[in-house]
Structure formats: C-alpha cells, structure tokens
Write a structure and sequence with these properties.
2 domains, alpha+beta, three-stranded antiparallel β-sheet
Length: 94
C-alpha cells in the first residue's frame, strides 16, 4: 500500500510507462481527492488499482483536439497532454 498526503480537491495524475514500451500498456490515473470516495482503475493486465478518498477524473482527446488543432499526432494522442488540455484548457484558451 502507498499512502500520500493530499487535501480535498487536490488533483493527482500518475503516468506509468510499460517496459518494454507499448503505448496500450501504459497506465494513466487522474483523480481528485474526495474523502469517502473510492476510485477503481483497471490495468492492462486485468489487475485493479483501488484509490481510497479519490474520485476518478475521466478525460479523452476532445479538449486537446479542440484547443490545439495545429499540433501533431504525437501531442494529441499523448494522454498526459490530453489530461492537461482537459483540466487546464480553459485557462490556456478561451
């Protein structure tokens, strides 16, 4: 078990890159700290990671494609970039 100290409302993002590298095996977890909540995140192996006092933040490539249409595929398919565009995109572009 891993324990982190965070306040209600904090956002945590974890990117786990597979070895050997295969993009479809990478792990991306985005959660907001919310006491009393539980987020279950499946992995490519079928295992499930359970995060206590967290709610899962679901995102996709929609915001990245809309806000940054001129960037190439390497940016728009990157889940780190997708999350940043989803979560911070309103501040980046009107």
């Amino acid at each position: 078990m891993i324990s982190l100290t965070a306040a209600d409302g904090d956002v945590l993002y974890l990117c786990g890159v597979s070895n050997p590298y295969r993009w479809n095996c990478n792990l991306h977890i985005a959660v907001r700290v919310k006491r009393g909540s539980i987020a279950n995140v499946p992995t490519h192996t079928g295992d499930v990671i359970t995060l206590v006092d967290c709610e899962k933040i679901n995102f996709d490539d929609t915001a990245a494609a809309r806000l940054f249409p001129d960037l190439g595929r390497s940016f728009l398919t990157c889940r780190n970039f997708q999350f940043g565009a989803y979560f911070y995109g309103k501040a980046a572009k009107p």
